[in-house]
Design goal:
The complex is a heterodimer of chains A (505) and B (348). Chain A has 505 residues and is of the alpha/beta class. Chain A is 32% helix and 25% strand. Chain A starts with 8 loop residues before the first strand and ends in a 9-residue tail after the last helix. Chain B is mainly alpha-helical and 348 residues long. The chains are: A alpha/beta (505), B mainly alpha (348).
Chain lengths: 505, 348
């Protein structure tokens, strides 16, 4: 990848600016991408990465600035022109038709509408060649629904290559991969740039950015605040550029394990279990694993939205009776759900109405079937202040809040009564660094006052930084617990891939 | 062409609905022109027919009364995303209960009989919607289908009753019920005019529904379930119970419309008691943007168009179907206007 500096420029942005009302999402951004290089686009959520990519693909019209691909200006606001010019993007959420084959997904839309049928033979040959060339192994005849997440991502990349993309944009590509799968992806990317592709790698994970890129562009609050050659910088310097200030590392004292507050024995539900799991007061128990291995079911059991089909669940020593969200709340479990928008908040209702959603039946908020609106609003004002929720006011609809503030709202609702047991499911997914630090601090605070915290996360760094004990979840089964620092990231990665499990048992 | 989300300015939120009504009248004017009549003259006649005299105005309010009840029924259900298309059937069940109890079966003074019939009818209408609601929550059966088809079942059931057990022996063979006794009747509001107590009851119902939705615990739960059932369930709101209660209230409101039509206006039950009040209630509720007080206004508007168009078609040779066209067009243009207040169009 050396010598890329001399290679021709394939993509050039000049002074791209986009404003949404008073907010400047992109402020005069200029950079050039050359053949055969990987440029990492680093920035917190809300820094303007997504807006910039949306402008490239014509979803937004820039207020000022120009985009040129291989020297030819790209007409603004024209998605088809962007695709025809050789730009391709692999989104975090794949855009594949589940019920169709790999071959059909790749060739779909590349042939004229009026051609009678797919030229399967030719397409198959090209896909086979590309798979072999770039280490993107996947069976062209397989149905998408039968593929793993890693394989689906390969199909997305193949789709881009099949359309002769010259600039490949990957949006947080490792969010759904095991460390081993990520390594394989990086190897593929290196082969692709060796063949003359240019790659934009969007991420906020510093480790990956250091591992895969040649150059790093750092966006902050809509502005390009730094451009570094990867070889000449380090994680710490990049993190500071990204946030704009020194980040305080959470100071984690030794755990003071208390009594077992939650005990699951042989719990089975859906694709989960049977599992045994004990959560102790004063400890954070981390569940590491690749998404889709039973984390959602585990979280639902503790949330009360799913009752165990078999096995026992005991809260503070007492067997849980009829299990429901209300029963879970009544037994003192605070829940931070994985899907903030879909499950955590009711977007079209006000911040106040969302904050009382778990407690509106309490005498504090209602009497004889009528809501006590002033009490609810006072409560909302206090939570907004205590949990630093940035919002236009307690009556603003919750959907207007940014991801981080939405999460603070959910944290405020869940943690305000100093609950004894806390479920935090993917609590920092998609949040910016500042909000992540805030969430971590609140979880550590709860640990310090003796609460039992179950942290489910796909971010291995997060699990390893916060957890006193770590279980790995794979195909619905839990590994034995390991203490803080007992296993290396590679060993946990191996467990995430299913090694060391006794799946036959 | 794509839609881009936006937050509309206050001016736009007023301007677009106004434009929607303008478009509705423009389209109707086009049709009237094709019939070879002056549109302005026709609109004037429609207006005079709907509000040009005390008689016309009272007639419009009389016609609006059942529409307020069915509009409220639809509003309550739709707020919780329970798609009740069966207000027509619930209205007829309310009417059936009225004639079953009100034609002499129960002898009681008016202050007992009127509330008794109303409560019994509301219960029957509520239970009629509870079935589809339970099928939805237990087995995932689509309530649009079940409530819609129940309309036909109930109408045929009423037809059977009117040819059999409920048939008026003195009715000269017509499929109609006996008249309700004097103690079961709702009083007229104006001597010699058709407007009856149903109208103020409908207004009270609208106020009650508004208070319930905005201030009560159940209203809060219904809105939460309607906006995001998954989040409501997660927060511990008993979604199925809320939907069941919603069904009882919604069905009850539509049934009260049936009581009001029989006890207040017609006096007996016939198969043409409702010219589709249940379906028009959906239009009324949508035009009111599912706001209970808006329902009163939109019901009066829709009723005015129908009453006015009837009067107009008697004067000039334009069929009164123009009223159906206008309400349907108003629904479409209003729907479009709402889309435009939430999104802007990008042509590329």
């Amino acid at each position: 990848m050396t010598g890329a500096a001399a290679a021709p420029v394939v993509l050039r942005l000049e002074g791209v600016t986009k404003r949404f009302g008073p907010l400047t999402a992109n402020d005069a951004i200029s950079f050039a991408l050359r053949r055969g290089e990987v440029v990492a686009l680093l920035g917190e959520n809300g820094a303007g990465k997504t807006t910039l990519m949306s402008i490239l693909f014509g979803h937004y019209l820039a207020d000022a600035g120009r985009v040129a691909v291989e020297g030819r200006p790209l007409p603004p606001g024209d998605t088809r022109a962007a695709l025809a010019a050789g730009l391709a993007m692999v989104h975090q959420h794949f855009t594949l038709a589940d019920s169709m084959s790999v071959l059909e997904n790749i060739a779909l839309g590349t042939q004229p509408l009026w051609s009678p049928r797919l030229d399967r033979g030719r397409a198959l040959k090209r896909i086979r060649e590309m798979s072999a060339d770039f280490g993107l192994e996947v069976d062209p005849a397989a149905r998408i629904a039968d593929l793993s997440v890693g394989e689906r991502q390969r199909v997305e990349i193949l789709k881009a290559l099949y359309r002769e993309a010259r600039v490949l944009i990957l949006d947080e590509p490792t969010a759904v991969l095991t460390p081993q799968e990520s390594e394989a992806l990086f190897a593929t990317l290196r082969r692709l740039v060796a063949r003359g592709l240019a790659i934009i790698f969007i991420s906020h994970k510093l480790g990956e950015v250091m591992a895969v890129s040649d150059r790093v562009l750092v966006l902050r609050a809509g502005r390009l605040v730094g451009e570094r050659a990867t070889a000449e910088t380090d994680r710490h310097a990049l993190a500071e550029l990204m946030v704009g200030a020194e980040i305080a590392r959470p100071d984690i004292g030794p755990a003071q394990p208390g009594p077992a507050l939650v005990e699951m024995k042989g719990v089975t539900v859906g694709g989960l279990g049977p599992i045994d799991l004990t959560l102790r007061g004063g400890e954070i128990t981390g569940i590491a694993g690749v998404s889709g291995n039973g984390q959602a079911a585990l979280a639902e059991v503790l949330s009360g939205t799913l009752a165990p089909e078999a096995g026992t669940l005991a809260i503070e020593g007492r067997a849980a009776g009829a299990w429901s969200p209300r029963a879970a709340l009544a037994s003192g479990i605070a829940r931070v759900p994985e899907d903030r928008h879909g499950v955590g908040v009711i977007g079209d209702m006000s911040v106040t109405e969302n904050l009382v959603a778990e407690a509106y039946r309490a005498p504090a908020f209602s009497r004889r079937g009528w809501m006590k609106r002033p009490a609810a609003r006072d409560f909302a004002r206090r939570v907004i202040r205590d949990y630093e929720v940035k919002c236009p006011g307690p009556e603003a609809p919750a959907r207007l809040l940014s991801g981080g503030n939405m999460q603070k709202l959910i944290l405020g609702r869940a943690l305000d009564g100093a609950p004894r047991i806390i479920l935090a499911s993917q609590p920092t997914r998609g949040l910016d660094v500042g909000a992540v630090a805030y969430v971590h601090a609140r979880l550590l605070e709860a640990r310090a006052r003796g609460a039992a915290v179950l942290l489910i996360s796909e971010d291995l760094d997060e699990i390893m930084a916060l957890s006193d004990r770590i279980h790995v979840i794979s195909r619905g089964r839990l590994s034995p617990a390991s203490a803080r620092g007992e296993l290396s990231i590679r060993e946990i990665g191996a467990r995430m891939a299913g090694l060391g499990f006794d799946h036959a048992a | 062409m794509r839609l881009e989300p936006r937050i509309a300015s206050p001016a736009q939120t007023i301007l677009y609905p106004v434009a929607a009504f303008a478009a509705t009248f423009a389209f109707a004017a086009l049709l009237v022109l094709m019939a070879g009549v002056s549109p302005l003259g026709v609109f004037r006649l429609v207006f005079l027919g709907a509000a040009g005299s005390q008689f016309a105005l009272l007639e419009t309010l009389t016609r609006a009364t059942p529409l307020i009840f069915t509009g409220l029924a639809v509003t309550v259900a739709f707020r919780a995303k329970l798609w009740n298309i069966g207000a027509e059937a619930q209205l007829y069940i309310g009417a059936v209960v009225t004639v079953v109890l009100g034609t002499g079966a129960v002898a009681a003074p008016s202050w007992v009989l009127v509330p008794l019939i109303a409560l019994a009818a509301m219960l029957a209408g509520g239970l009629l919607l509870l079935g589809p609601a339970l099928l939805k929550t237990r087995f995932g059966v689509d309530e649009v289908v079940t409530t819609l088809l129940l309309n036909f079942i109930v109408l045929l059931f009423v037809s059977m009753l009117l040819e059999g057990p409920l048939k008026d022996p003195m009715g000269l063979g017509w499929p109609q019920s006996q008249r309700v006794v004097a103690e079961a009747q709702w009083p007229r509001l104006v001597q010699g005019k058709r407007l009856h107590m149903g109208f103020p009851v409908a207004i009270l119902a609208a106020l009650a529904v508004w208070l319930m939705l905005a201030r009560s615990v159940l209203g809060y739960e219904m809105r939460a379930v309607g906006h995001n059932a998954a989040a409501a369930r997660f927060a511990g709101i008993p979604v199925n119970r809320v939907l069941a209660l919603t069904a009882l209230i919604s069905g009850g409101l539509a049934a009260l419309g049936g009581v009001s039509e029989v006890s207040g206006l017609k006096g007996n039950l016939t198969l043409d008691l409702s010219p589709g009040f249940g379906y028009t209630g959906i239009v009324v509720a949508m035009l009111a943007l599912l706001h209970p007080l808006g329902v009163v206004a939109s019901a009066i508007f829709v009723a005015g168009i129908f009453v006015g168009a009837d009067a107009m078609s008697r004067a000039v040779g334009v069929p009164s179907y123009i009223a159906d066209v206008m309400t349907a067009t108003a629904l479409l243009t209003m729907g479009t206007a709402i889309v435009f207040t939430r999104y802007r169009i990008r042509w590329r």
